[in-house]
């Protein structure tokens, strides 16, 4: 065996050892997490996206000041007098602006008139608008704001409110967070529907979540107009398609459904069984399962699973039938469950695979750094193309992609990775056909960070209603921020707090932004 072959064998063995060590480290980290111990730090990001941004303009020689403070509320004028010696001359006023926060507890005992009409009917004076239960709308807004956007915990929020003089218990605060929130839950669902109807692209991601003392997954769907969260026990493609139905429960057999089944390799004879023009719409899972049973799908044991593929296809047919994702791109980090419709991949995650690759010799390290430089330069040119697309640059970038990812470096592990990335060419280069699509999923990762924080400070949820309220309010808060609406004002408008400005329905704002200029 030659020395080159020995070096390659040693590098392969070292790569295998590194893989086993990494697997062992993941198991140790999981044990530490279960024991509530602090795990090791993760690898630092490569910094490709920031490093390929256009150069910023040179800073001015003199840094401008922050300017005058402009309060967002009305300003009250107060004159402060001072004792002066006799004969002094008045020279006007020197203005000094102070912003203050007033926190006070106020209790109102309403004495509601009661009348009995001549026909014996009792009429009682109604409570003021926004008053539901024994806590006012401003208090409800304060609780929702601090718990969801402020990411505080229930015990700390209870202690805060009790310390300022409120007679309230943890159980009562819990009810304020979950009960009588149907309006917010409906608006969160309608936000998802409006986003899926009007957006040219959506970015998706998921993270771990605890619900009913069991591990689950929270899925994020959104873009620069909206954010929506849904927590379920599974992260399968079947679950993802169910979330994309945005509350609808029907199954539809249409051309989109059959096309989906063909792309998932469902045999043509089975598709022909489903292509019955009489039965195309099924109201819920029970009706759909009964239909598959009648056609004999449930008795089949072939691969791929006919029931699974047919169900996914009928869900995709429902999504298209309701007008969701009509021509939208789904951008993800290459998690398999998100590969539906027109799918695009994140370049940051793709480059991270090269960045995290284990190298053991000088030649391997040199090959790795050379490839990273080529990818960084190519990524910078993709950014320039997004800003100014043209057919000529599109052809050039396609050919250049092949030259980069078909290279053979002599580093076997790196070559296999490059071949894998080249196989994803259509999804990595979706931006060439759809320049409005981002090159990365940073937006999704920023959005889902609030769910990670909530998971860390409050563990998990115990009821389905609590889970849905948490997802809805975190999504609504993110959507408000993306549409320039203060979450405090949004809550005040929805809870009918006196004197609050009217905030339009968030789905209407999303649809307005989705209309062509």
Describe the structure.
- It is a single chain.
- The chain is α/β, with parallel strands linked by helices and 517 residues long.
- It has a domain of 78 residues.
- It is built from 21 helices and 9 strands.
- The strands form 3 sheets. A 5-stranded mixed sheet has the order 5-4-3-8-9, sandwiched between helices. The chain has a two-stranded antiparallel sheet with strand order 1-2. Strands 6-7 form a two-stranded antiparallel sheet.
- Helix 6 packs across helix 19, helix 6 runs parallel beside helix 21 and helix 7 runs parallel beside helix 11.
- The longest helix has 32 residues.
- It is globular.
- The termini are far apart.
- The model has no long low-confidence stretch (mean pLDDT 90).
In short:
The chain has helices at 3-34, 48-51, 137-149, 154-163, 170-178, 182-198, 237-244, 255-263, 268-274, 285-294, 306-321, 347-355, 362-387, 391-405, 412-423, 425-428, 430-433, 442-458, 464-482, 487-494, 506-514; strands at residues 114-116, 122-124, 201-211, 214-222, 227-232, 251-252, 281-282, 329-332, 342-345. The protein is an alpha/beta fold. Helix 6 packs parallel to helix 21 (506-514), helix 12 runs antiparallel to helix 13 (362-387) and helix 14 (391-405) packs antiparallel against helix 15.
